[in-house]
Each structure stands twice: as C-alpha cells, then as structure tokens.
What we know:
- This protein is an alpha/beta fold.
- The protein has 3 domains: about 1-180, Rossmann fold; about 190-380, Aspartate Aminotransferase, domain 2 (3-Layer(aba) Sandwich), CATH 3.40.640; about 385-520, Aspartate Aminotransferase, domain 1.
- About 40% of the residues lie in helices and about 15% in strands.
- The protein has helices at about 35, 55-60, 65-70, 85-95, 105-115, 130-145, 160-180, 190-205, 215-225, 240-250, 295-305, 315-320, 355-365, 375-385, 385-405, 425-430, 445-455, 485-490, 505-520, and strands spanning about 1-5, 10-15, 20-25, 45-50, 55, 75-80, 150-155, 210-215, 230-235, 255-260, 275-280, 305-310, 330-335, 345-350, 410-415, 435-440, 460, 470, 495-500.
- The strands form 4 sheets. It has a 7-stranded mixed β-sheet, with helices on both faces. A 5-stranded mixed β-sheet has the order 15-16-19-18-17.
- Helix 6 (about 130-145) runs parallel beside helix 7 and helix 8 packs parallel to helix 14 (about 375-385).
- The longest helix is centred in the C-terminal third of the chain and has 20 residues, at about 385-405.
- It is globular.
Amino acid sequence: xxxxxxLDGIDLTINQGDVVAIIGPSGTGKSTFLRCVDRxxxxxxxxxxxxxxxxxxxxxxxxxxTELRKKTGMVFQNFNLFSKKTALQNVMEGLIVVKKxxxxxxxxxxxxxxxxxxxxxxxxxxxxxxxxxxxxxxxxARALAMEPKLLLLDEPTSALDPELVGEVLDTIKKAAxxxxxxxxxxxxxxxxxxxxxxxxxxxxxxxxxALAFSTGMAAITALMEIFKPGDHIIIDEDLYxxxxxxxxxxxxxxxxxxxxxxxxxxxxxxYIQDNTKAIYxxxxxxxxxxxxxxxxxxxxxxxxxxxxxxxNTFLSPYFQNPLxxxxxxxVHSGTKYLGGHNDTLAGFLITNREDIQEQLRFxxxxxxxxxxxxxxxxxxxxxxxxxxxxxxxxxxxxxxxxFLEKQEYVTRxxxxxxxxxxxxELMKKQARGFGSILTFEVDSKERAxxxxxxxxxxxxxxxxxxxxxxxxxxxxxxxxxxxxxxLDRNGxxxxxxxxxxxxxxxxxxxADLEAxxxxxx
Length: 521
C-alpha cells in the first residue's frame, strides 16, 4: 500500500518485522512513524493495526510511536540518498542491512527495481550527478525492493518535476498490482553474463562503465554514432586497416570527415578545425608500432573540448590504462588479448564520463550489436589468465626482437621494448609493459614470402593476442584496403611482417625463425 500526502481511508495492519518505508526530506522518519505523519494532512478516517493493536489514524496523529516500534520490532526506513553511494548501492543497502540478503541476490533485486523506475542506466551514478526527480525515483526503488507494508511519500512533488509525478506513482501502482520483472527482459538489451563481463572490463580499465559488443568493429561502428554529419575527427595515420576502412567508406558517406596524421610526431593542435570533435589514437600503432604521448594528447583535447579516444587492444588493460592518462573512451577488440584463445569475437567501449555512458547505452540498445552470453563467458574465461599470458608473451617478444636484430636479412625491427625504439622511454612512463606485438622488415618481398611459406610452429594467419604465435603480412591482410599513398606514407611495404608473439617456448619460436632464415638462398 502506498500513499502520498493524505492517509484518509486506509485500514492497514502492520505486524512485527514488517517494513514501513518513508520517503521524504533529510531527517524524516529516521526513528519514528510520527515524523512522517506530522508532514501529512491530518487524516479524518482510517485505522492502523500494529502488532494486534488497532487505533484510528486520527488518534495516533501527533503521538510518538518510538516505544511501540521498539516493542514490536517493526522496521522503519527512511529512503533518502547517501551522497557517497551510487544508486545501485543505495537500493542494495536496505536489502543487505534490513533483510540480511546476500550481496548477489540484493544486487539482482536492486537492478530490477531501478529498471522499474526507469533508472537502470543510472545504476552507477552518484546522487550529485542526478536530478532531484531521479534521486526520488532511486529512493522509491530502494523502498519497493524491500516490499514494505506501507510506503509513505512525503510530498513527492517537492523533489519531482510535475510531469514525473504521475509516472512515479504509476510505477508504484504497477509494482504493487502486477509484481516485478526478472530485470533481464531481452538478451539484446542485457543478460547476466554480459553484465558481469562488462563490470569486470570496466574495473580493469578503471572506467565507470564498459559496453560489450559482438566484435571490435561493431564497437567502433557504434562509437561513431555519437557524432553527427559535419563533425571532424583527427585520426592516427597508422591504424588498424579495418578502422580506416570504416572511417573512409562508411562514416565519410554519412557526413563525417577525417584528417590522418602521425600523432606520435606532429602537434595535433595544428590540425584542429572549428568542427573537430575528437582525436582517435592507437598506441602502439598497428603495424608500425609508433608510440603517442597520451597525457599530451589529452591535455590538448581538453583545451579544445575534444574527445580523446584510444584503441588499447595491443597492450590490454594489463599493461596500459588510457582513461588514467586522460582519455575519455577506450576501445578494445576483445577478440584479441582479453579473449586470448582465438575462439571467439568481442569488442568493448569503456568510458569514465557519465554523459558518454548514457549516449553509448542508448546506442547499443538501439543498434543491437551486443555480445552473446556464450561469447561473454568465453571472454570471462580468457580474462582469468590475462596477466600470465601477457607477461609470458612479452618476455618471448623481447627475446625474439633481440634475435631478429642480429639477422643478416632483417633490415629493421620495430618493438617498443627495445631501447633503440624512439618510443621506449615514453612507454616506460605511460605503460607497465611493452606488449608482445613486433614488426620487422626483411630485404626483399621474396624473403618475406619465403618466411610466410616455411615457418612451422609459427602460424601464418591474420589475428593477434592469442596463445599461439601468428605471423601476418599487413600489405595483403590487415591493411589490404589502404591506398598506395597511405601504405607508402606509413612505411608498410611488401617487405614488412608482423608477429603476434604467443606463450610457446621462446627457444622453440626462435628456432623456427632461425631455421627458415637459414633456408634463404
């Protein structure tokens, strides 16, 4: 039963242990039912039976029920928000403290109630970032979660916009009359496995939210929906070829414009236009392993009110956290290191900004390229071994890089873990490791072909980040759609090979490369 402002006509029985929920200003209902009743219009009719004792509401008006509450063990709850807790934590608290519910079950019910009041997307928001109306609805969700015998709203219009009052009361009526939903109405919108995965990825990147997509390219495609025709984006000229294809073939058609620059060496401010909205970077880049200064890019992006978007796939959150360096959005192809086994596809967008979170949540719900439950489980499985895989693969990569530097037919080795790499010192400052991707150049196309055709343990395949070591030929695989001009500008020639180093024995991998190099005539 609920009431707002007027108690007339209620015939209510409250037994020991029943919850009486009171929603009102700070201080209301902390210890007594009286404090809330005092704020309501004096009732003329109706009765209340508390633990077998029936009284007219008019009779108890103005009387303190503190002693009765103590004798009966009734639970009186005030549902104002606490400034240091999120909406979800507020709703969970009553269930854990009053109903002694386990955390997992309390969270499930709390999410159901936030959904009932239309605030599931605000679960991780703090009161200071919410309107008065939203705070009031969180308080109502908290109360409904505990299934109170009586819910009193103390002048709800004081905190709600007028147009929301009816919506909130309708929500209460519906919840009271029809029961609650499971909280997961449709798997495209959310499912428990994906939700669990998103929380883990958000925590790894130290963001407030992560959104799981069916692939990395699905994530980037959705990300571009936050922009509108006429917007301009500065992108690194050395990016994954699939990203470049999307930008130039799809997004340009839809009215966006792009400027490609070497973010590791130029002053990005020289390329900012009146309509520039974002800077999009990879560091290290794919495949030429350039390293950009994320703190410096962030400083300039914030100066001009631009978004800084960073694809962190190569290093994973184990080695680098762009949000801590000033980025607004982080992109991952979860297919790679997060999954780690080359047996599923996934993509992620992570942010630490609530306004972006809300935009992206609407986009993923509307466009629908969400990650399926089984794929979510596979990524969760992969994350469990992320640390040990990254450490071992990086150790192997450094040994292979040193080996390749000494080979007669290898003209260049690009790996940021080598002291000779121009980004070595910067990587030490902004990352905790160098990763396990390296690129090397041989002295002819024929030698490149020979290596691709004769490696045994190393597999010639287009991917990265798994337990297996893969060798890729960028000019015909990952970057096949780039123009000749773009390839030449980035130094991607028919002599360039990229290695994604796995977790096999480093000696075995080096022996495989050594054997194939010895066969070169």
